[in-house]
Amino acid sequence: MVSFASALVACIGVIAAGYAAGRLKIIDTKGAGPAAIGAFVGRFALPALLFRELATLRWKDIDGRLLASVAAAKALLFAGVLGCSTLLESRRAGDDRDFKRLVAASASRAIFCTQSNDFALGLPVIQALYGGDEGRRMVAMLYLLAPISLVLLNPIGFLLMGLYEPDEGRSGRKETVRRVLKRVATTPLVACTALGALYGLALGPDALPAFADGFLGILGAGFTPTALFFTGLSLVGRVTPETDLLVPLALSFGKCVALPVVIYAILDVAGADALSKGFGFVVGAIPTAPSVLVYTNEYLRHDEALVAKTSVALVVCTVFSTPIIFAAGLAARSESMATAADAEVADAFLCVPSALLATWCLCSFAATWRDEGTDDDRFAILSVNALCHAVGALSAALCSVASGTAGG
Predict the structure, then answer these.
(1) What per-residue confidence (pLDDT) applies to 41?
(2) Cβ-count burial of 294 within 10 angstroms (0-12 exposed, 13-18 middle, 19+ buried)?
(3) Is 27 exposed, middle or buried (0-12, 13-18, 19+ CB in 10 A)?
(4) Listed range (17-31, 166-180, 378-392) with the worst mean pLDDT
(5) How far apart are CA 147 and CA 52, in angstroms?
(6) What is the DSSP letter of 341?
(7) Of 147, 181, 194, 387, which alpha carbon lies 20 to 30 A from 401's?
(8) Using one digit for the tens of pLDDT, what is the confidence trace for 337-366?
(9) How open is the CA angle 362-367-368, to the nearest 5 degrees?
């Protein structure tokens, strides 16, 4: 457990170092430096890492049920966010142009809630949380889970956002579709994912030459620290005292609370074991990747308000996910050691979002409280009661887990 906590603290420390470098002007966030770091991460280090890992992947160790369940959960949340966001804001649409703008904004939010920072933050956390053959299998699963968003869900969002581009009227929808599909197909991440998987399936996991393995290993080794540093750098200047936090908080809850709960529920219905359910919950709680901000800037740069809200949501989600990942990691670790009953583990997982939701309600109440009216007071009492119940149940579950570990 110490290694997991140390890995999480180390990741947060590197992110904080990147934020400090930008905040103290050591690196000019408006210059070419961040763009160069992002290009290295997205076009060299991560593609090399993906190709090497997929080319040497042992496919017999892959859990197809886990892979399908996470894909189904992400697709369900993507469709839910897209549909609900469009429905809630459709009354503001005055004409067809306004409706396209709302759909584009909803697509951006759907991508935000399903695109995890799987490699920069998820990879070191999973490696520290699981060890041995079990750890290698979970890391392999992580490499296969990430392309779900890149290849299946994100292109849908890109198409919907692309239809709102200012030049859409001149280029036409067919041209927009063709451009988006070409962009997805030629992205280094997608290309290296496909090529690495095909190479491993065709030639086997031990067929990668030593010189290629060494080259890709050195290039990929630079990904994790650089990507974490870049994550911190991308958070600089995103939140101001005038920032409206309602939408960013809602998106953060969707990513860090709704997604892991949905994944856990689908895995439970599918009859997955405790290890898979714990892994799915932790993976779902990983915060949104900074690449979502790149997508929003690329497709919706003319909508400054939406870009600003996405930037703030990225900050809130990164900060908000830390306690969830830590608590979920504790419960998942207990599951992997087979020391907790299923009911106790479920309490440990589900009480975390319950406590956070109750805290959010109390903060909203404190920010908008007025002297008149008793309904607000009743709401506050109910929220406090829910928070105490969630914290108490979580404490009892973790104590029970600790007692079982000590007794074993």
Answers:
(1) 84
(2) middle
(3) middle
(4) 166-180
(5) 15
(6) -
(7) 387
(8) 444 444 555 555 556 666 766 776 777 666
(9) 100
Whole-model pTM?
0.73
Select from 332, 344, 408, 345 the least CA-distant residue to 135. 332
The residue assigned the tokens 């290694």 is 3
Percent of the chain with pLDDT over 90: 9
- 155: tokens are 């292109």
Tokens (6 digits) for 394: 């979580």
pLDDT of residue 81: 92
